[in-house]
């Protein structure tokens, strides 16, 4: 199946690294769009997520997907009635226990800059796993929502003042819903 290019664009709409990472699979349960198709995709996600450059290989890609699905399953357990599974808890803990990369300053002719050396993918996944732990056990857990579009499965933290955000984003699903309403009236 050919997937349009824009469907493979990583969404960063959730407000949390952990949920953005879960969103690297689109339209779960229907089209199942896998946006982490190669190790390079994983490295690109890390950079676009603002987590710095990283080096990823095929084993990292497989590991990343394992962490992602564990996070997804745990988030679902907070949204629905299914109890959280010990296996998913163990996976997230395993990834979170890895050391993260320390940021460092460089100095050139009296001017400081941020040294941007590429981190191993495992360090990036550790940041994502730790964010997942903070998310699932912090105040944001109660604000996790599922986009109301019937085929979109993106998750986000509803930080809107009224707590009535319905769509992953107005550009994606909000606009489509508006069009549907206009057409049906
Ligand atoms: Zn959506």
TrEMBL record:
Protein name, UniProt field: CGNR zinc finger domain-containing protein
Limits of the Zinc finger CGNR domain: 144-183
Source organism (scientific name): Kribbella sancticallisti
SUPFAM superfamilies per record: Jann2411-like
Entry superkingdom: Bacteria
InterPro entries assigned: ABATE, ABATE_dom_sf, Znf_CGNR
């Amino acid at each position: 199946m050919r997937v349009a290019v824009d469907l493979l664009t990583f969404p960063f709409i959730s407000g949390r690294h952990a949920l953005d990472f879960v969103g690297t699979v689109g339209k779960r349960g229907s089209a199942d769009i896998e946006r982490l198709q190669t190790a390079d995709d994983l490295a690109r996600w890390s950079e676009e997520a603002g987590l710095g450059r990283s080096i990823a290989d095929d084993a990292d890609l497989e590991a990343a997907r394992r962490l992602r699905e564990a996070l997804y399953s745990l988030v679902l357990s907070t949204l629905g009635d299914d109890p959280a599974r010990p296996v998913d808890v163990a996976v997230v803990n395993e990834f979170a226990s890895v050391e993260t990369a320390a940021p460092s300053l460089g100095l050139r002719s009296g001017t400081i800059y941020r040294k941007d050396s590429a981190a191993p993918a495992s360090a990036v996944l550790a940041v994502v796993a730790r964010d997942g732990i903070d998310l699932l056990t912090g105040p944001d857990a109660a604000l996790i929502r599922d986009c109301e579009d019937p085929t979109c499965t993106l998750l986000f933290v509803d930080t809107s003042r009224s707590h009535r955000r319905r769509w992953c984003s107005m550009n994606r699903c909000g606009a489509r819903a508006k069009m549907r309403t206009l057409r049906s009236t």
